[in-house]
Specification:
single chain; about 25% strand; 3-stranded mixed sheet; 6 strands; alpha+beta
């Protein structure tokens, strides 16, 4: 798959100085979040710090709400030596930023997509 990205205003959360500006770290960005919503809530009066919304989801929502960034670079949780690019596609409308990609289709061809 070919992906072409022209994106400005990207937070590089792998840079310690930039991560410190938004008070995050590698553990928060790559922690176990998948099962937060799957775990049972605690009994009344009990404590369950590993249920509900995962810290990565809370952080991502807060980063989006800053309205400063169109995307972010972070560490990959699955491949520790790699990075990922997250794009707030809602922020691409009315901007010079774009995301284009080609995706194979079932007929053996491909389709080209562009956001916005």
């Amino acid at each position: 798959m070919e992906v072409t990205v022209n994106l400005s205003d990207v937070a590089d959360l792998t840079d310690p100085a930039e991560a410190a500006l938004v008070a995050t770290n590698a553990q928060e960005l790559t922690g176990d979040w998948w099962f937060y919503t799957k775990r049972r809530p605690p009994p009344p009066g009990g404590s369950a710090p590993h249920t509900g919304r995962a810290p990565t989801q809370v952080f991502g929502k807060a980063l989006f709400e800053l309205r400063t960034f169109k995307g972010f670079v972070s560490f990959s949780a699955a491949l520790p030596d790699c990075k990922i690019l997250g794009v707030f596609t809602e922020r691409l409308a009315n901007s010079t930023s774009a995301l284009e990609y080609t995706h194979p289709d079932l007929a053996g061809g491909s389709q080209r997509f562009q956001i916005p």
